[in-house]
Amino acid sequence: MADSACREMIIKAIIICLLKLAFSYSFRSCVEIPDSNHKIFRCVKCHESDITTIVSDVFPTATNLTVSRNNITYIQGQSFHHLFNLTSLVLDANYIVNIHKDAFNNLQKLQTLNLSWNYISSLHRDVFSDLHHLTKLLLGNNNLTNIDMFLFSNLTNLRIIDLCRNHLKNFSALVESISNLSRLIHLDLSFNKLTTLHHSTRLPNSLAKLILSNNNLHKLGCDKSFLKYVEVLDLSKNTLLSSKTFQGLNLEYIKNLHLSFTKVSAGKLLNYTNIQPRHIDFSGLNLKDHALTLLCFHLRDHQIPKMILQSNSIRVLNKNTFCNCANITDEMDLSQNAMKTTGCLKFLHCQKQLETLMIEHNHLTKLKSCKKSKKVYSLKSLSYRYNRILQVNGYAFSNTPKLTNLELNINIIAYLDHKALNGLKDLVTLRLDNNLLTDIYNDTFKDLTSLKTLNLRNNHIAVIFNYTFQYLSNLTILDLGGNKITQMKPHAFDGLKSLTNLYLDRNHLKEIDGMLFGRLHATLQVLDLQANHIMYSTEHTDSPFINMSRLLDLKLDAQEPNGINLLPHAFFRGLISLNSLYLTKNHIIGFGAETFDDLKSLETLTLDNSCVGIAQLKPGIFKNLRKLKTLSMVNMGITSFSKEVFGNLTGLKLLHLNRNAMMSLDISLLDNLTNLTYVDLRSCPLSCGCQNSELQNWTLSSKRLQFPYLFNITCQDHPGSFFHNFDTNVCYLDIALYLFSSTFTFTILLSLIPLLYVRLYWKFKYGYYVFRSWFGEQWRRLKDQEEKYKYDAFISYNSADEDWVMEQLLPNLEGSSFRLCLHHRDFELGRDIVDNIVAAVYGSRKTICVVSQSFLRSEWCSLEIQLASYRLFQEMQDVLLLVFLEPIPERQLSTYHRMRKVMLKKTYLQWPGSNCSDPNSAKELFWNQLKRALRSSNTRSQEKQNDQRRHDKEGTDKEEREYFMNHTPINDEVHYLMP
């Protein structure tokens, strides 16, 4: 049943994790290491206290997991149950105090478990029971006081156990707990509280390295053969340990024994044990003066390829000190002593075959000339690091001509003689870094024809003179970084025919000399110019790299004091093979669209902190970087990107955009980067609004792209909210409904607007003008009673017909006591023309429209007839009279809908033309009819009474009827109807 339940839990865990893999590629507390194929994860400084919360969304494909520097105090049971593929689990530097006995269940593939630097004081005996394949267990720097005898019982494959810096006291119980570990090879128990090696069982025969340094051992108290199979035994800094404790001890397999800072006597140790002298580290055994001579006497019959004599307070070595020793062939280490001089290495008088000599951390102040030394040594490697050497005289190494490695770094060398390195024709590596050198000369390295690496970093060199390196034809690495170089002479690099790496960072160079570096074009692959004083004042500068077609790595970061600022056009022209370019901290004003055009082989581009203020990358800036894999643009002030910026970056895998000013990011841009696997958007002020709804959904559903620490990104515009879960429901609508509603509304409006325009245009216009008049306090006067009308008729005519109005109409009507309103005579000066028209229409009993072709073309005339017709139809006021000066075809009147309507409802008058048979009598009849119409009442009841009287009236003049019938034309164009 238990196995069935376990299998069911595993299946559920697999399903859950696979769903996460399919639908989410962001982690709450962890980051997947790029290009690790979902196998390596780091969860560092995530400020979580619950381990299950931290690792819950890590993919089950993980093989390496690091959870460090968090606030974890307790490891719960089944914490890693879904991570059954783990082979390495690092839980160091947390605050772990307790671990549940089932915490590591289901980790059957685990090989490395690191629990160091925590506060663990005890461990349950079954806590590691499921870790059958564990090979390395690190428990150092905890508070363990004892080890359960069954703690390691199931770890049959364990090879390394680290228990250093705990509080262990019982060595016997510890040995009992590891006695069945047949593959254990390394056990570290240093910095504990062991006082004896008393034991109740034996060490595993496989144990080869046992570290017991910095304990409180005062005796060993172990069986004589207890350490028989140990090869490396460190008992150093057990200050109470004496020689007698080793008496009779079987150390036949020991290959490295450390006893520094104990009371053990080297001579007695050789007498008391069967250890081979060549396997003893003689450091810290107070072997100075006579004691060292005596030691060599004990070693006279033994082969000692390596002698370690560190920390023995040795001050002086004479020529006979090592003569009683057998030949020391490999290495002699005299570091951390008190030597003030080497005396041209006379103490090696009897050691002709020694290859490596280390005299580091001593008190040497000077290396004197050894030109007169008759003895030549076979040394190949010599190190004087960490001394106080101030000067190196000429021929200082003439007695060691076979040197291939010379280390003089980390001293205070201010003077290096021209001939100091004379004779070192086999030297391959020379380190002079971290000294006080100010000058190097053209013959300083004259004899170093085999030199491949020259390190002059962190000195005070100001000028590189001509031909300084002329003899170094095999030099491949030249490090001049961290100096004060302001100038390099034109022939400074002459002779460097094989140079591949040139480091000039942290100097005072103000320009890049294309001619100077161009001499290295055939071989140079790495050029480091970080933190110099390079800057440009114009964009039109020739590329200094035009001939450097083989350069692979270029560093131009952090130019002092304020960066490069201005980057010339085509600055990188010629760098067709460049793989890596670094431009961080340069505060560049802007990048041209052609800046990176020549960098077709570029794979890594770093632009962090390289812009001033807000940066706007131009479309096509990366158009030729098809091989680019890593692009870092941290803190550049970028607010947005266009698709054209990243258009051709088809090979891009890692994109760092953290600490920029972007409030949104177009997901279509990311979709086009088909190989992208990692995008860092931390510390960007992403808006939690609808413009980022698609980005939120995309970050949580991408199957291939990782957004590190996405769940920690907060909303700048909604404090306290997080980007990954802000509400996006309001951003989504039913698209079909939305489209139907919008198109339906648009169609209806498109159909109604022309109809409304035709039918209601003048009503709206009239209403507008009437409102204006009313607003101007005119409305009251327009609505007065009929007896208060100012005029009998308002004459609406076009200026083209003014002669007829003035010569015919005016004399006939005003001569009959009619009061007429004419616009040119009676309109109020300074008043708006529209207000005047409205006042004239409503201030007159009638409106006479003198219709002609010109009248129909006039906008003002059209307004006047429309206003009068409105009174006619809507207010039931008989106010409109139409006088046609000329015949008008129907097709022309069809546009004037309201005029045709008036003609259908009302009688209208036609001015008799010249073709009339009796013009005089026709005109007289015309004027009589017009005057009668003007005298008629405006009310509907009066109009009916007048109609009745007109029908009943006797003695109607027969000529009037004939004229009316004859001069109201009836034809196929216009239908003139009587009411």
From TrEMBL:
Regarding the membrane, this protein is recorded as:
Single-pass type I membrane protein
Q: Where is the composition biased (Basic and acidic residues)?
A: 941-963
GO BP annotations listed: inflammatory response; innate immune response; toll-like receptor signaling pathway
Q: Which GO terms describe its molecular function?
A: signaling receptor activity
Give start and end of each TIR domain: 789-934
List the Gene3D superfamilies hit by this protein, alphabetically.
Answer: Ribonuclease Inhibitor (3.80.10.10), Toll/interleukin-1 receptor homology (TIR) domain (3.40.50.10140)
Task: Report one GO cellular component.
Answer: plasma membrane
Q: Which key words tag this protein in UniProt?
A: Glycoprotein, Immunity, Inflammatory response, Innate immunity, Leucine-rich repeat, Membrane, Receptor, Repeat, Signal, Transmembrane, Transmembrane helix
Pfam family name, one: LRR_5
Give start-end of the signal peptide.
1-24
What the record says about family reads: Belongs to the Toll-like receptor family.
Q: What is this protein called?
A: Toll-like receptor 13
